[in-house]
Amino acid sequence: MAFALHINMERCTGCNACVVACPVNALELSVTDPVTDEKIYKVKNGRAVVLDVNHELCAGCGVCVLACPFDVIRLAGPWDSNYKSLAVGLE
Ligand code: SF4
Ligand code: SF4
Fold first, then answer.
1. How far is the CA of 51 from the centre of ligand 2 (A)?
2. pLDDT tens by residue, the chain, 91 residues
3. Cβ atoms of 68 and 5 closer than 8 Å
4. 58 lines ligand 1 (CB under 6 A)
5. Using a 6 Å cutoff on CB, does residue 61 contact ligand 1?
6. 47, 33 in Cβ contact below 8 A?
7. Rounded to whole angstroms, what are the CA distances from 24 to 33, 35, 72, 73?
8. Which domains are seen in the chain, by residue range?
9. Does ligand 1 have an atom closer than 6 angstroms to the CB of 60?
10. What whole-number distance in Å separates Cα of residue 48 and Cα of residue 21?
11. Which among 14, 27, 32, 34 could disulfide-bond with 49, CB atoms 3.0 to 4.6 Å apart, if both were Cys?
12. Are 49 and 29 in contact (CB under 8 A)?
């Protein structure tokens, strides 16, 4: 099964609460040089804030959604390997 996390990086503050809360370490927050990193979602104080999700590890538990103090994470799924929704009412 697969889950999708949508993180509104316009509003993400890079506080790291979701990363700490995730029980399977599926989230990684990095602050990088905006000149050298291609995955720039947000620049704060001249540096880029990048939040990556490892979809192989994500169990879809929703803990990160609850942990985010700014309510910027949305969780969708699960889907099977053909990306057909398995959730009741979402087919
Ligand atoms: S849904 Fe659960 S497993 Fe997936 S990234 Fe969030 S806290 Fe981690
Ligand atoms: S908890 Fe929310 S605001 Fe904080 S780093 Fe995660 S997504 Fe961004």
1. 8
2. 688 888 887 788 888 899 999 999 999 887 655 566 555 455 666 666 678 888 899 999 999 999 999 999 999 878 765 555 455 444 3
3. no
4. yes
5. yes
6. yes
7. 27, 31, 20, 17
8. 2-79 (3.30.70.3270)
9. yes
10. 22
11. 14
12. yes
